[in-house]
Amino acid sequence: MKKSLLYLLVASFLASCSVGDRGELTGVYPREDWVQVNPYGMNYIHFGSYTMGPSDQDVPYAINATSRTVTVPSFYIDQHEISNNEYRQFVNHTRDSLFRTELYNNDDERYFFVEDEYGREIDRFVKKGYILNWEEEIDWEDEDVFDALYDRFYRQGVETFYNRKELKTAEMNFRYWWFNYKSAANKENKDIELGITNELDQLHSVARHSDRSQFIVEEVINVYPDTLCWVHDFTYGFNEPLTETYFWHPAYDDYPVVGVSWGQAKAFNAWRTAYLNSWKQEQGETFVQRFRLPSEAEWEYAARGGLDLSPFPWGGPYVRTIQGCPLANFKPMRGDYVDDGGCYTVPINSYEPNDYGLYNMAGNVAEWCNTAYDPSVYEFAHDMSTEYEYNAEKSDPPALKRKVIRGGSWKDIGYYIQTGTRTYEYQDTAKSYIGFRSVMSYLGRGKTGNPEDYNLE
User: Fold this and answer.
1) 41-83+226-444 belongs to which homologous superfamily?
2) Per-residue confidence (pLDDT) for residue 65, from 0 to 100
């Protein structure tokens, strides 16, 4: 009897000291303590609303923008345009991935793992999959390795020029995937249009749409910049020196990358996201939001630097300081490209940043936005997170392949470097005056505290 009473008292004590939820709704624990830090080279932009649109007269009477108030959630944006050296990291990573994949296809086991990150064995003989081994340096002294890579990826014979070792840039193709959320969200509407009304049809529809592979879009794109853009952009001009050296020479490492299409910029952001999240996965950390091109609304909000209704990122309406120093790299006078201190492009940290700490939001190179261009988009786009984009659907009109470019460039007059001026280029074009920078959405409401302290080192 005494023993039973002792057991009852011990059980009661253990129950009273239980660390469980006691049947209450407490959420799922443990969870990671999440603190979002600024990605390297990016500044935080706090959420807000502003008057989007021109701050000056519509000089060319393009009638492609009206003023309206829009709201933008918090996000991060690169302090600078993406430089040649930063983009080269993407090109080199693509090159090395292709090298290791080619060696994998030749059954060279040194350059891939036969187990994936979960320890599951991969059948390399039927080539169901593989994990690249980045720890193994490529052995160029191995004749088989040299032949396998050199024959496919390097120019030979009559293609060589003074016996230089040059890559076949046409082989530098990057494969990536993205999820078409808009297509997935529209499936119910498509079912209604197809006459799916009864319960049985709805069940079949749900079963059919449970396969989300139909919303995963695979794309392959050549990542090497179009270095010939310096020649084909300007008839009767001598720009061959830039074609020969601009992308690869160390002299231009910190200059903005050009000759990159909208599609290549999009692929760069897919790689940049995977590159960072792969490292976080190795560290056991939670993934971050993806890098992407800014929407037109985000770009203009960041360019204004908190100075609403100002025509330029530094305020306005002048393009020089009180001492007469130029504030941007553009074409200040007819035929005079150097009055602003630059001839073509200039280094990405040139001139003074705006009040958000962002360089060259006016001039230097115009920048790709994710937004598809429509002259009347301000009339129908939503005023929260304003966006209008191409969805890779067969039903999408060709006009959606026109992409907004913002900020003006080294070759443009003052009107085009204003924060509210918009124009476009087709997404598959590459120009010597268009570059880009990346953004990343902030997870949560927004940072608290003094806005001036958001981007302190």
Assistant:
1) paralog of FGE (formylglycine-generating enzyme) (3.90.1580.10)
2) 67
